[in-house]
Amino acid sequence: MNLIIKDKELQLYYSKEQLKNMVGKTANQISNDYQDKHPIFIGVLNGAFMFMSDLIRAIDPQLKFQIDFIKLSSYEGSKSTGIVKALSGLKNDIKGRNVIVVEDIIETGLTITAVIEEMKKLEPATIKLCACFLKTGKQKINIKPDYLCTEIEDKFIIGYGLDWDEFGRGLDQLYYIQ
User: Fold this and answer.
1) pLDDT tens digits for range 93-107
2) Pick the catalytic residue: 17, 103, 107, 123?
């Protein structure tokens, strides 16, 4: 079965099983590192919703944590505008908390750098970055996640929360545009 979105054929990049295994390994690392630290996971919407959902469910159930979300945007269509627009903020106070920012993909580094700089102003105890994907060769700001599922090639990917003009976010596997 061929998947077509916006007249483009999609090719499978990672299957459901591969994604589950990558996310599980990352969740185990976090679970081990955050015993007795009561972190707050902050997902960057819209893209991180599927990854964060799977990550949270794979975290050790004994780990006491909270979740929250922040919504930002720097894309129009398939291109980054390079300008990060904050659309909505946190519901929880993070002062003195151990924060884990959960991002779907890091490409240029502009969006996540802006998120982290804004979070620092709220005086958390720690801020760690967890990303599902790190796209090689696209970074304008060199930022390395503390927790990373995998690096990917410089292809336009879609699915598993990532979109093309808001299409394809709900696909449960990761694809690239041919």
Assistant:
1) 899 999 999 999 999
2) 107
